[in-house]
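Operator note (shift B, R.M.): manual run for WD repeat-containing protein 48 requested after the automated queue skipped it. Running by hand, logging everything below so the morning shift can see what happened. Input copied straight from the record, untouched. If output looks odd, do not overwrite the archive copy; leave it for review.
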Amino acid sequence: MHRVGSASNGNSSTRPRKEKRLTYVLNDSDDTKHCAGINCLALLASAASDGSDYLFTGSRDGRLKRWLLDVDRATCSATFESHVDWVNDAVLVGESTLVSCSSDTTLKTWNALSFGTCTRTLRQHSDYVTCLAAAGKNSNIVASGGLGGEVFIWDIEAAVAPVSKCNDAMVDESSNGVNGSGNLLPLTSLRTINSSSNISVHTTQTQGYTPIAAKGHKDSVYALGMNESGTILVSGGTEKVVRVWDTRSGSKTLKLRGHTDNIRALLLDSSGRYCLSGSSDSMIRLWDLGQQRCVHSYAVHTDSVWALASTPTFSHVYSGGRDFSLYLTDLQTRDSSLLCTGEHPILQLALNDDNIWVASTDSSVHRWPAEACNPQKIFQRGNSFLAGNLSFTRARVSLEGSTPVPVYKEPTLTILGTPAIVQHEVLNNKRHVLTKDASGSVKLWEITKGVVIEDYGKVSFDEKKEELFEMVSIPAWFTVDTRLGSLSVHLDTPQCFSAEMYSADLNIVGKPEDDKVNLARETLKGLLAHWLRKRKQRTGSPAPANGELSSGKDIASRSLTHSRTEVDGSSENDGMVYPPFEFSVTSPPSIITEGTHGGPWRKKITDLDGTKDEKDFPWWCLDCVLNNRLPPRENTKCSFYLQPCEGSSVQILTQGKLSAPRILRIHKVINYVIEKMVLDKPLDSLSADGSFAPGLAGSQSQLQAVGDGSFRSGFKPWQKLRPSIEILCNNQASAVS
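Run finished. Output pasted below as returned.
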């Protein structure tokens, strides 16, 4: 299970504490687009106050977007960003409340007509929240289901005053302070269904609400459906059965058997009598809940059925799934027609008048004609077939080569997304990451700036990786994944502070070339530069000096409690962000992290208003940025020898061992060889023990040292005539002078 923030381990006092992680997600230059598959769709019709139709999309990139719909175009009018993992489903409740669920185990409520205002975070699930179901527009009932086998029924009453401070285990206000300036969504009660009719009651002290917990599901839940009045709920998942619940009491009323594989989609008609189910067994079934039996089964698809949508009269069903195909089926006559085929599995459908929006594992969304008001128009075009009642009949027809011809070849409108990153490689310099996206395009990212520095187009990823190979050795100070469709860079203490480079190698103008730059520290300064400026404006004082924090007693005490820290004295704590660490403000990255309260949160770095403190950020992050303190590092040195190359005329006077610090510029080795060995000119500043670069550790170089020597970062090059010297490391030329 993907986790962005790491919880502390309290099982043993002798084990090191697992500190919270800080992640930043690099966004594409066109941030109005999704960059991963679209898991869910929700439509807000023109009855809204501004008279516009809106489409809401929830993506595997962790964000939701609102699209203003026109006849021939869709414009992104808001991005809803707070979830820290995939958005799996979304529904609209009341006039303008959007409810979403995520693999981060939370539900979030949003002001649907705002510019991305998260009004509440609901924390009750113990695992991924996979699906939602909502009653009619004027009802407040929302159900959620997840991989933990839990189903919760949330009753939201618009007339109740805003909740001030609810039970922390259940509700967080404003998603840990993120995007929390909008109207709060009142919460009245929570009913929990687990798997039988055993009811357990919990009381919320501040409001007096009585959530109801019932136990029943034995395994993961993938699909939910609810009738218009919100009195009946159906659920299904890996148990291959459809369960029916009374939402008013939280009790299970019946169980329907018939599918032979996971149930992935459910629909209830407005009255709650008929239910449609789609399954991984490739079948669609129509159930009569009054008769408690399956009345029809439809063999339409050749693979799993993942999405269902019905006409308003529940006479026809649109279905899509793993076979990339969208079908229309008459539930009475069993006539079926292939509307269209795509290039990706279909995940969800949403009817909008005579059109249907189709979401898939691709980052784009397509609109196709649906003729929902008069579906017979589609059958009149011909090419329809009679749906069988056994799954193998449809597969056999497909094998015989009589695959239906799609009614439509092209969608009437497409909301384009950015292709998701599907392959990546961290290069040896530990600043560049090579990526390949779903379209085959290869790009080079600079992760300390969060931008693409080279777009190579559709070239061989492996060949480009070999071409960009550098003979350098820098410690791994970050990890990367592409679960959200883009690069997520993870920083974990103390490992992230292990990499340093010389300012000269980073081309930092105006800084002494021998100054060492800690890559993680400067990256954190770049990420939090906007927050630091806002914080300074709010407090009216500059950033604190070394070892001081205006309101950071907790941070200082924690740094002393958990481990000794060292002050990074090699660079001034002036808040300056050097050019190699300046992040884009036009497509800023998003931070995902958590502090001591409220759970994980996500926000763009340019949206941080300076109010966040040690409760919201990991203490080690603030200790680095505000106090200039880094975790202690071992002063490790590597022993090695300098040897003359075969055939060299250099005479070996004595044998001696040298040692290397964490990093050392190779020109210092050349100076040492020239002065100490070639010219036999000892330096007074040399001590009995040497230092060298870890990139040469355990390697053989051309020349052997005469006696032991110390490479100090400050000694000056030899001023006399220099001979030509070549230094080899692992038989690779590292430097020539």
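Quick read of the result: The mean pLDDT is 79. The radius of gyration is 31 Å.
Leaving this for review. - R.M.
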